[in-house]
Design brief:
The complex is a heterodimer of chains A (160) and B (197).
Chain A lengths: L5 E3 L1 H17 L4 E6 L4 E6 L6 H21 L7 E5 L4 E7 L3 E7 L5 H27 L12 H7 L3
Antiparallel strand pairs in A: 2-3, 2-6, 4-5, 5-6
Chain B lengths: L2 E3 L4 E9 L6 H11 L9 E4 L5 E14 L2 E9 L7 H7 L5 E7 L5 H17 L9 E6 L9 H8 L6 E3 L8 H21 L1
The chains are: A alpha+beta (160), B alpha/beta (197).
Chain lengths: 160, 197
């Protein structure tokens, strides 16, 4: 299938959320989130009420896409890690299993060394979870709930 | 690549506005942004040059309401239209669920339209997509300008596969939501088909 859907199930979501919640604590981070390579936010933890995670998600994906494009030109597979240092906030971006992006935002309460260490551990766990997710979504019978929708349902969406 | 989240009961889709430089892709998004209730939209992001030409992309998240208990969210992107930004255009097409081709109706932009449509086909093919299989609509923009080609002519040149097409004046908003609704419908219909496979 040219256009495979990414699917998130409850069980895997909880496992991912657990990893993300723990990473916020272990890395002393402000915010941690996971985005797919197309910019869709998958999970977030930490002080998320004060950041626009939707915008950050799309910009992160754009950033990774641009860096990936540069890598290709240099005959590199990917640049899997990026770090941006600001005056108050820093962003650590890590590609996980070439599928999703793990973003850690932190300030002076943490350090790059600590973040890298914790991200490494979380990346291993997340790689396993997302591999399960992909297998699960490809199993026969993994129907979308949309098989049942009618043309009327779709029309109703646009009636207001 | 749509993203179905059973946990959040959400379905996310990516739409891309494509077309030659200055055809009005960003203007489409700006109009949608202005006319959408705050609770249905996120922030619009424009990565543009100092002269307000799109450098990388514009981004606008929209939520259209619920379908069978699932929130439908659409992420709208534009590409930079200028020819030399081709590498960026390719990146933005990754994971696209539906494409809107915005054509500039002015006679002098005929060639630019054809070139951009061809470029869209090539760039999609590079990602393993075929334009003929994707939800795809065409918008003939700038109908309010004096030197425009007839719609039939534009149709003959650009809409050989007879996809839904719309006349528009993105600055005033005419045709903007019709175009968006048409492609969103096609994307949802495609999802429905996907569920049956």
């Amino acid at each position: 299938m040219v256009n495979p859907q990414m699917v998130m199930y409850e069980e895997e979501f909880h496992r991912i959320q657990t990893v993300v919640d723990r990473l916020v604590r272990d890395a002393n981070a402000k915010v941690v989130f996971i985005v797919d390579k197309n910019g869709q936010l998958i999970a977030a933890a930490g002080d998320i009420d004060n950041v626009d995670t939707t915008s950050l998600a799309s910009l992160t994906a754009g950033n990774i896409a641009a860096t990936g494009g540069m890598a290709k030109l240099l005959k590199e597979q990917e640049f899997a890690t990026q770090f941006h240092e600001g005056e108050k906030a820093n962003i650590h971006i890590q590609l996980v299993g070439n599928r999703v992006i793990l973003v850690v935002i932190f300030d002076t309460k943490s350090s790059l060394g600590l973040v890298r260490l914790r991200v490494k551990k979380a990346t291993e766990e997340l790689t396993r979870i997302f591999a399960t997710l992909v297998t699960k979504a490809q199993e026969p019978g993994a129907d979308t709930p949309f098989a049942e929708i009618t043309d009327e349902d779709i029309d109703n969406l646009f009636n207001d | 690549m749509s993203f179905i989240n059973y946990m959040a009961r959400e379905i996310n889709c990516k739409l891309v506005y494509y077309g030659p430089g200055l055809c009005g892709k960003t203007t489409n998004l700006q109009y949608i942004y202005e006319r959408t209730n705050p609770e249905h939209k996120g922030k619009m992001i424009s990565l543009a040059t100092e002269t307000e030409r799109t450098l990388f992309f514009d981004f606008l998240p929209l939520s259209l309401g619920e379908i069978r208990g699932f929130k439908t969210r659409f992420h709208l992107y534009t590409v930079p239209g200028q020819v030399f930004y081709d590498a960026s255009r390719k990146l933005i097409l990754k994971g696209v669920d539906g494409v809107i081709f915005v054509a500039d109706s002015q006679i002098e932009r005929t060639e630019a339209n054809e070139e951009s449509l061809e470029n869209l086909r090539t760039n999609l093919a590079d990602q393993g997509y075929s334009l003929d299989k994707l939800p795809f609509v065409i918008q003939y923009n700038k109908r309010d300008l004096p030197n425009v080609a007839a719609v039939d002519e534009l149709r003959q040149m650009l809409n050989k596969t007879n996809v839904p097409d719309f006349e528009a004046m993105a600055r005033t908003g005419m045709g903007v939501f019709d175009t968006l609704k048409a492609v969103a419908k096609l994307v949802l219909t495609e999802l429905k088909k996907g569920g049956r496979q």
